[in-house]
Amino acid sequence: MAGRHNDLTDVAGIRVGHYQRVGEGWLTGTTVVLSPPGTVGGVDVRGGGPCTRETDALAPGTLVEVVHAICLSGGSVYGLAAATGVTDWLGERGVGLPVGPNAGEVAPIVPAAGLYDLRPGAFDCRPDVAFGRSAAEAAARPGGLGPVALGSVGAGAGARAGGLKGGIGSASVVLEGGVTVAALVAVNSAGSPIDLATGELRAASFLLPGDMSGLGDLRRPEASDVAGAAARLSGVSPRVGNTVLVVVATDAEVSQPQCTRLAMAAHDGLARAVHPAHGLTDGDVVFAVATRSTPLASPQATSSLLQRAGTAHPAALGGLMAAGADAVARAVVRAVLFAEAVNGVPTYRDLYRSALTSVH
To answer: How far is Cα 146 from Cα 139, in angstroms, rounded to an integer?
Structure first.
């Protein structure tokens, strides 16, 4: 069952904010995820062309386990400047690791990743410090608690998914025992989320009731749409750079190394939804965060060794990892379905009108 908003904010305490500029040469944006105190984080990078900041700090065994925010941004390497805006915004509010004797002397931990969207917008129109600050402020406002805006917003404003318009997608699920796991994606993939031979979204089978959110029912598109779309998409030249950025969040009481395993497993959801994934020109990155407010129940008795270690049972952790991967696959589908056409880049709904039945 999906959570209340069916997005990342269904994990209590998680906030999401977007900021984007579109028009007059601009086609880019930034998305910020703010996490509550005590949130631990992990990361797994699979793409051959990553664009990241502070990912090494999240490796198991390093000094820092906590994450104060995550910044996803367009603008490729230039867009990583947005993370500085988030860091400054948090530091001004005293949020971060204490690093000095005086109040407010803190170092916010803000892992970040960028995606390539420097065309078709103007090359020098890209996110900067102000974008990060604005997205953080948006996350802090009441709307940051959800529902999350989907489609051509934030880091997904200039994103593409193969030859289609990409964007922001999110999905959540509440597991037996009350644990919530959710995903937010910025889909800017070189690979395609659709099977060109059938016009079907590759991960459509993972959708849960409510995932369409007023778009109607999803079905196999008619042959005429499939042929027309294939002809139009066959002439689309791939971008030089691409990337799918992912944040998986859970309230499960897991350790930081287990959070890293959650990030690793979540890449399976990306591989189900986009083909090919993790290519040489992709910067595919998954961040995972855990607020640790809900015990992760196990169908089996937890051994005394695991109890002493304060770690989740492998069987329960495996279920959490599988749910995270499924949430990512669903989030990718929702990103593609909710995208709006920008600068002539078509959407799935434009090309495959017969795939969507009447809205209820």
So the answer is: 9
